[in-house]
Amino acid sequence: MLLFVATQVSAQKYFTKTGVTDFKASVAAFEPVEATSKSTTVILNTETGQMASLLFVKSFRFKVALMEEHFNENYMESDKFPKATFSGTLKDFDLSNVSETVKEFPLVGKITVRGVEKEVTTVLNVKKVADKLICEGSFNLNPSDFNIKIPSIVRKKISEQIQVILNYELVKK
Hints:
By secondary structure, the protein is mostly beta strands.
């Protein structure tokens, strides 16, 4: 009976350890400020719509190594604040209504960056392809909301709003 219950619980969750999270903080006429992490861990409880994710800040990769160094040391202080987390809910999520056609679900939750928690509301596009759930979406954050100080010398080169882009392929756990 315990094996049956464990199977039922595991059938209700989808996850990935290789989710792609990008951010863009570029300003026109300056060098692009953008990075990609290909190791975001995400879990979705398909019965409740609850979603959680964990991203190690140092997993972001930039095209310019010096930019990556400044990002980790000066802005994110990734030795002191090594991870960013999200915990929230896909509203009205019903796995039986998810197909190969994209369906939009409101995503509401809290993101924690540098030890500061902030409410996030966005829309997540979800579709089912074979045995995977493909989840895509984006939202904007302000560095100042997380006590990230941008020095005046580079302030005009970095956008005041950071676009965070999510692209996750979740498999049944």
